[in-house]
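Submission sheet (multi-component)
Chains listed below:
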Amino acid sequence: MGVESVSQMPVAEGKSVQQTVELLTRKLEILGAEKQGTFCVDCETYHTAASTLGSQGQAGKLMYVMHNSEYPLSCFALFENGPCLIADTNFDVLMVKLKGFFQSAKASKIETRGTRYQYCDFLVKVGTVTMGPSARGISVEVEYGPCVVASDCWSLLLEFLQSFLGSHTPGAPAVFGNRHDSVYGPADTMVQYMELFNKIRKQQQVPVAGIR
Amino acid sequence: MSGVRAVRISIESACEKQVQEVGLDGTETYLQPLSMSQNLARLAQRIDFSQGSGSEEEEAAGAEGDTQDWAGAGSSADQDDEEGLVKFQPSLWPWDSVRNNLRSALTEMCVLYDVLSIVRDKKFMTLDPVSQDALPPKQNPQTLQLISKKKSLAGAAQILLKGAERLTKSVTENQENKLQRDFNSELLRLRQHWKLRKVGDKILGDLSYRSAGSLFPHHGTFEVIKNTDIDLDKKIPEDYCPLDVQIPSDLEGSAYIKVSIQKQAPDIGDLGTVNLFKRPLPKSKPGSPHWQTKLEAAQNVLLCKEIFAQLSREAVQIKSQIPHIVVKNQIISQPFPSLQLSISLCHSSNDKKSQKSATEKQSPEDHLYVLEHNLHLLIREFHKQTLSSIMMPHPASAPFGHKRMRLSGPQAFDKNEINSLQSSEGLLEKIIKQAKHIFLRSRTAATIDSLASRIEDPQIQAHWSNINDVYESSVKVLITSQGYEQICKSIQLQLNIGVEQIRVVHRDGRVITLSHQEQELQDFLLSQFVMDLRVAVRLWFSFPVTSVKIFQKAMFYKIANGVIFVDHSKKFSGIKWKVETLFIKWNCLCLHLALIFSRNFDLEYLQINYKHKEAITSKDVHLAFETFHFI
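Outcome: structure written.
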């Protein structure tokens, strides 16, 4: 358990998503990281059913149900700015039972798949974000194992990110800003992923409109 | 009396008339009191003719009260008699009983009168006195006392004999019933040790470990039967038991798991022909009945079978670099290249045939009792795990499985943590690891001992730690010179003997890992011997030098006490030693040995050379040799 930073790598000019991913992985291999299998993070969206809304006509809250292959026996459920629940995998079955209260949004499943690289204390995961059949972006997650307090190791993470991301190094994630000195947990990682997926989802809408 | 007016006193009799009935208007009807004759009749009825003379007087007094009535009663009685029929009417006539009694008295008196009159004549009847025994002479009271005592004693004896007879009867009854009752008490004793249940008219028991957590599919039921082949007439044998147990045929006899390590691998053809030796049955407790020993032996056989089944299943399923061989009742694996570990199930039945064949006993020297014991412990550990509260769900609605596994979801365990929860090692792997460790440890001990016996100077000491793990032991090795133990403390090695390698921690902090090869350890220890010498020599033989004079073949060092003359000896130069000999002209001679390569250190070689030196030089050199040897 360590501190993880999730960020997005913009697609290089004139290249496809796959090629950019290959570039990154080659860089990592040159650096000396060793491949250690694959990973997958996926997310499904649910919104509260209309029947449970009050008469004021509030907008339905969105709930995200996510899985992470790093924690194979767990399931995460989180609201946008609300709490994050870590549960057993039986939670998915529970969601089926709660069909009356939570309805899944259409075509909402978004996931990222890729390879894991281990470089000493760092674990780097480079994945392709796909929604349906199309690849929408690249996600890069870096975990520093030994530390559990975010504020202590952010500078080290930043340096490492710079070494192979170059100019595309992201800023400090919002999650770090919230609770500086508290222990970092897997829930924070999932919040980062949720924000990333939302960003990618909004991004894609622009080019579609542009094509038209 | 004078002047006081007379007071009229009215007297009323106390006995009022009895009330017969009270009318509805309040008037009372009185009973007429009895008249005189009625009263008399009432009294006469109450006469009891069977009493003595006192009542006769009363009778007479009562009768005189009214003679008229009596006469009338008597005449009426005669009239009745003449009629001949006596009708029983007690309520009508109160004088009836009186009359009857008087009549019978009259009859009696008449008879007596007749008899007496006949006897008076002495013609037809005579009176004779009744013969009586002669009274015992009253002058001998002691005899009388004796006889009376005898009689009383006889009476007491009779009572006691009666009681004794009753007791003997009950005892003999007990003896007879003992056989029947003993079965139940034996059954009760059996029940205290084993689980029994009644199925139809049979009593079955369970000697498997199923209730203790085992998953072995053997049923393990035994039957309790009544021992009826007893002849009540003959004497009951001492070890007779009315209860007998019948154990399943495949659990008969005794079994044990033989674990042995052999150096050389035998031929393939020899596999499967494990020579069993009949281990003497473990001595049962002196007070335990025979069924207890029988059942315990059967349970042991079952446990050994389970252990062997588990081991062979794992041997087949688990993939390892060198595959394990499972042949008949033996599992063979190779923990180290030249080593063979064989685990076999030795089951010897109690037949007479096998007893004869087992006379050629295999020497049990290579059987490792520790590993056999550990196997038993491990399988019991496995049993306990299936029943432990970690596995059993708390609360009852939780799913089965390890407690921490259930928490791994909500607490987001990653793969490392999940792997650490699941114990991936089976019984066979554990036993092989233990065997490896035992072998490595014994070989290390043998190496150290052989070195210690072979090399006299310096000395090697090994302090083995008493508290060890199944997979790790440690020994502290000290290499010292005799007489210089306090000074030369720098060679202290801590050897941690693990499963496959030995880790050596030097006093100065260096950590060296040695493999399981015997030679490696020996070489390493030998190198340490030399280090000791070097240190010792250095300590003793460093002198401060004031001036130096170098010549062609020798060097002169001037020190406080004199001059040290250094000569380069060619004999010792080379890969083994480079020796510089120094000698002082005055009091003492000293030697300085400079060690270049310390691999194959050979003390003997050095000594021989110095002996040679001794022969050709003066006594000063002799002293040097001794000094060196002293180190």
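Remark: Chain B has a mean pLDDT of 73.
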